[in-house]
Design a protein that fits this description.
heterodimer; A: mainly alpha; Sodium/glucose cotransporter; 2 domains; B: mainly alpha; 3 helices; flat
Chain lengths: ~700, ~50
C-alpha cells in the first residue's frame, strides 16, 4: 500500500514537471490552457501533501487530543463544533471574492507566465501558510481576532497598527472594487439593468424569507437565482427598450445637478461613470443603515449560491473546451510601460495579484468565524491551507480567461483612453503599434456579439474577464448565439461579489469606527443607537466614496493609481499577519522552523516597500503619485487631481510607516525571545484534553 | 449517499439553515416568523474577502 502511494505521488510530481516543461519549452508558440491547469493542479497536490503536512507536524505540532474553543466554549451560537467539510465550505465562501478574478486579469498585461508563477509560488509558500498558521494560532487562543493577537503577542503598538491597517485596507478596498463596478457598467444599459435588478430581487428574497418561508434559505436562494437569470436575459430587451420612464440625470455640463427627466428606458440605463459612482455611493449608505435581513443577508446568500455554481462551471468549461492561450508567456510590458497599469513586473505583478497568491484580508477571516467552528486542531490544515489553495485555483482560471482572448482585444478593453486614445480607430492603431494587432471593426463586432455599445477603454478587469468567460462558456455551451447572455452573466457574477463585499465591508468598518469612537464618547459605541449608525455609516461611505470619486475623475482610468494602492494595503496586512505569526512561532520555541513564515514575510516586506517607494517617489508620472502631481501642477491641471495624487502618496507613506513600526516592535520581541532577555510567554490557552478523544478511548 | 449528506450539510451551514435550527433548539422555540426574526436580529455581519 505504501509503495503504491509513493508511486502515485511520484506520478503526480512527474506529470506536473511534464506540464511545466511543456510551458517552458513552448516559447514563442501558443500553448493549450490545460498544460497550465495541469501544472497548477499537480503543484497544489504536491504542496498540500508534503509542505502543509510538514507545517502541521513540525512547525505547528497540531494535536488531535487538544480540545478546540468550539468544543470547550460551545454556546450553539458563535462556538459550534462543526464537520470539517462544512467549515471548509464556510471558510472558502468567505475568502473567495472578486480579487482572484480581477487581479490576475490586470496582471495578464505582463503575459501569462509571471502571474501564473506568482499565483502558484505565492499561494503555496505565502498565502496558504498565512491562512493556516493564523487560523491555528487563533484556535489556540479561543478564536481571538488578528488585532487582539497583535496586541497580546507583539504589544500595544501591534494592536493599534493592526487596527489602523485593517480600517485603511477596508476603505481603500471598497473604493477600488466600487470603481471596478463603475467601469464595468458605464455606458452599458444591459449590465446596468441586470445589476440594478439584483437589489429588488434581494429585497424580495428578504421578505419571502422573513414572512413566507422563514429559514428556508436554500429554497429562497434558488428562487432568487432564477429571478436574477431572468434579469440577465431581460437586460437584452431593456437595453433597446423605447418605453418612456422617469429617471434622474445627475449632471449638466459636467456639474453635479440631479434632476428628473422623462426618457426611453434604454437611455435611462445608459449611465456615465460619475452618475454610476453617485448611485453606488447612495446605495452603499442605504445598504449600511437598513436592516440586515432586508438586503444584505439575502443578497449574501444569493452571491454565495451564484459563486459556488459559477466557479465549478468555469472549471468545467476550461476542461471541456481546453482553449489555446493567445497571450504570449511574456509581453514587452514587463519593462514597466504597460497600458493597464504602469510599473515593472517586479514589484507590481506581486501587488496586483493579492487574493489568489497572498491576501492579508484572509487573516481576518482566519481569525474571525472559522476558528470558532473547528472541531479538531488537525482540521486546520485542510481548512486553512486547503481553502486558500482552492482560491488560488480560481485565480489560475481567471488568468486562463484573460489569456484565451487575442492580446489586441485584451489591451483594447483594458487600456484607458488617456493611454491608448479615446476614438476606436486611434486606440486600435495605438495598440496595433505595440505589436498586438486589433481593428476597430473587430472590436465593434465583438461588442455587438456581447451586447455592448463599445468594449474600448473598459478598464478595471471585470469586462475583460467577462469577455474571456463568455468566450469559454459560449464555446462549451450554446455557441456564439448566447455569447451576450454569458457575458452579462459573468458581469452579474462579478458585480454580485463586489456588492456583497461593499455592504459587508461598510458595515464591518462602521462597527470598527463605533468601537473606536466609543472611547471618545460612550453612546457612539452603541450599535443600536440610530444617530451613531447613521453618522459612522456616512463616515465610512464618505471615506471609500472619496477614493471611488477620485478613480472616476482620474484621466488614466483610476485603476492605474488605485489598484496598486489596494494591493499594497492588502499585502501590508499580510506582512502584519506574518509578523505576528513569526513572533508566536519564536515564543513557542520553534525557532528552527522560523523560515516558514519569515521567508514569505521578508519577500512581502521587499515587495511592498519597493512598490510603495515607486508609487510615492518614481519620477515617471504614470507610476509616482508625486511626479504625477508635479506634472499636473506644471501643466496648470485641475487642483483636485493634484491634491488626490498627493493624498495617495501620504496614504501609502502612512501605511508603510505603520507596518514598519509593527516590524520594529516585532523584531524587538524576537531578539528578546532569542536572547532569553525578554519573557517569551504566549497567550496560548492551556491544554485541555478533548472529550472526543476520551469518547474514542 | 454519504457524499450527498455531506454536501447537504455544507450547503445548510453556508446558507445558515443549520444555524437557524440550532437557534430554535437552543431557545426552545418552533420554526416560524417570530423565531426567524429573532435569529436574524442576532446575526453578525462578517467581513467578506476581496
Amino acid at each position: 500500500m505504501r509503495g503504491l502511494r509513493t508511486l502515485l505521488w511520484v506520478g503526480i510530481a512527474a506529470l506536473g514537471a511534464l506540464a511545466f516543461a511543456a510551458v517552458a519549452l513552448h516559447r514563442g508558440e501558443q500553448i493549450n490552457a490545460l498544460w497550465l491547469v495541469t501544472a497548477a493542479f499537480c503543484t497544489y497536490a504536491v504542496g498540500y501533501r508534503f509542505y502543509s503536512k510538514f507545517i502541521a507536524v513540525k512547525v505547528l505540532a497540531l494535536d488531535p487530543q487538544r480540545a478546540t474553543p468550539a468544543e470547550r466554549l460551545e454556546d450553539g451560537r458563535d462556538y459550534v463544533p462543526t464537520n470539517k467539510w462544512v467549515v471548509f465550505g464556510h471558510h472558502f465562501a468567505a475568502i473567495a471574492g472578486p480579487g482572484p478574478l480581477v487581479g490576475p486579469v490586470l496582471a495578464a498585461q505582463f503575459g501569462y507566465l509571471p502571474g501564473t508563477l506568482w499565483i502558484l509560488v505565492g499561494a503555496l509558500f505565502g498565502g496558504c501558510v498565512q491562512d493556516f498558521v493564523i487560523l491555528l494560532f487563533s484556535v489556540r487562543r479561543d478564536g481571538k481576532s488578528l488585532t487582539q493577537m497583535a496586541r497580546e503577542e507583539v504589544g500595544p503598538i501591534g494592536g493599534v497598527v493592526a487596527y489602523a491597517a485593517v480600517l485603511s485596507i477596508l476603505v481603500i478596498l471598497l473604493g477600488v472594487i466600487a470603481l471596478v463596478v463603475v467601469n464595468a457598467l458605464k455606458q452599458s444599459p444591459w449590465g446596468t439593468f441586470t445589476i440594478g435588478m439584483i437589489m429588488p430581487v434581494a429585497m424580495l428574497m428578504g421578505i419571502y424569507l422573513r414572512r413566507l418561508r422563514p429559514g428556508r434559505v436554500l429554497e429562497t436562494s434558488a428562487l432568487g437565482f432564477v429571478l436574477v437569470m431572468t434579469a440577465v436575459v431581460g437586460g437584452k430587451w431593456a437595453a433597446v427598450s423605447q418605453v418612456t420612464v422617469p429617471s434622474i440625470r445627475w449632471f449638466i455640463d459636467g456639474r453635479a445637478l440631479p434632476h428628473f427627466v422623462l426618457e426611453p428606458l434604454s437611455s435611462a440605463l445608459t449611465l456615465s461613470a460619475p452618475g454610476l459612482a453617485f448611485l453606488l455611493i447612495l446605495y452603499g449608505f442605504a445598504a449600511a443603515i437598513i436592516p440586515v435581513w432586508l438586503l444584505l443577508a439575502p443578497r449574501d446568500y444569493l452571491a454565495t449560491f451564484v459563486k459556488l455554481g459559477t466557479i465549478a462551471l468555469l472549471a468545467l468549461g476550461i476542461v471541456v473546451m481546453h482553449p489555446t492561450l493567445q497571450m504570449p508567456a511574456l509581453t514587452k510590458f514587463v519593462d514597466g510601460t504597460g497600458p493597464v497599469f504602469a510599473g515593472k513586473v517586479f514589484p507590481f505583478a506581486f501587488i496586483t495579484i493579492a487574493c489568489g497568491a497572498v491576501s492579508g484580508f484572509h487573516s481576518l477571516i482566519s481569525s474571525g468565524t472559522t476558528p470558532k467552528l473547528m472541531r479538531r486542531e488537525t482540521e486546520a490544515r485542510m481548512v486553512g491551507y486547503g481553502a486558500m489553495m482552492c482560491e488560488s485555483m480560481v485565480a489560475i482560471m481567471a488568468t486562463v480567461a484573460a489569456c484565451v482572448m487575442e492580446p489586441g482585444t485584451y489591451f483594447a478593453i483594458n487600456s484607458p483612453a488617456g493611454v491608448a486614445g479615446g476614438l476606436p480607430e486611434k486606440a486600435a492603431a495605438t495598440i496595433s503599434g505595440w505589436g498586438f494587432p486589433v481593428t476597430a471593426d473587430a472590436m465593434h463586432r465583438l461588442a455587438q456579439n456581447v451586447g455592448e455599445v463599445t468594449l474600448f477603454n473598459r478598464t478595471g478587469g471585470a469586462p475583460a474577464f467577462a469577455v474571456g468567460m463568455a468566450h469559454i462558456f459560449s464555446n462549451s455551451l450554446g455557441g456564439q448565439a448566447v455569447m451576450a447572455v454569458w457575458y452579462h452573466f459573468a458581469l452579474m457574477f462579478e458585480a454580485l461579489f463586489i456588492l456583497t463585499v461593499l455592504d459587508a465591508g461598510t458595515r464591518v468598518g462602521r462597527f470598527m469606527l463605533q468601537d473606536a469612537l466609543g472611547h471618545v464618547w460612550k453612546p457612539l459605541a452603541r450599535t443600536s443607537w440610530y444617530p451613531s449608525i447613521v453618522a459612522t455609516s456616512a463616515l465610512m461611505v464618505a471615506a471609500w466614496g472619496y477614493f471611488l470619486w477620485q478613480g472616476v475623475r482620474d484621466p488614466l482610468g483610476g485603476i492605474n493609481s488605485l489598484w496598486p494602492l489596494f494591493g499594497i494595503a492588502n499585502q501590508l496586512l499580510a506582512t502584519a499577519a506574518l509578523c505576528i505569526a513569526t513572533t508566536i512561532i519564536l515564543k513557542t520555541r520553534r525557532a528552527t522552523y522560523l523560515a516558514v513564515t519569515l521567508v514569505p514575510l521578508t519577500f512581502l516586506v521587499i515587495v511592498t516597500f519597493t512598490a510603495s517607494w515607486h508609487k510615492i517617489f518614481d519620477p515617471d508620472p504614470r507610476i509616482g503619485f508625486l511626479a504625477q502631481a508635479r506634472q499636473l501642477a506644471a501643466a496648470g491641471g485641475n487642483a483636485r487631481l493634484i491634491f488626490n495624487n498627493r493624498l495617495d502618496a501620504v496614504v501609502t507613506g502612512l501605511l508603510i510607516l505603520m507596518v514598519a513600526l509593527l516590524l520594529i516592535e516585532s523584531v524587538r520581541q524576537w531578539i528578546g525571545a532569542l536572547s532569553g532577555r525578554r519573557a517569551s510567554a504566549t497567550t496560548e490557552t492551556p491544554f485541555v484534553m478533548t472529550r472526543l478523544a476520551e469518547e474514542r478511548g | 449517499m454519504k457524499l450527498i449528506r455531506v454536501l447537504r450539510a455544507i450547503l445548510s451551514e453556508i446558507f445558515e439553515e443549520s444555524a437557524y435550527e440550532r437557534f430554535c433548539a437552543r431557545e426552545g422555540v418552533a420554526r416560524g416568523r417570530e423565531s426567524y426574526a429573532a435569529f436574524v436580529r442576532g446575526r453578525r455581519v462578517q467581513a467578506k474577502c476581496c
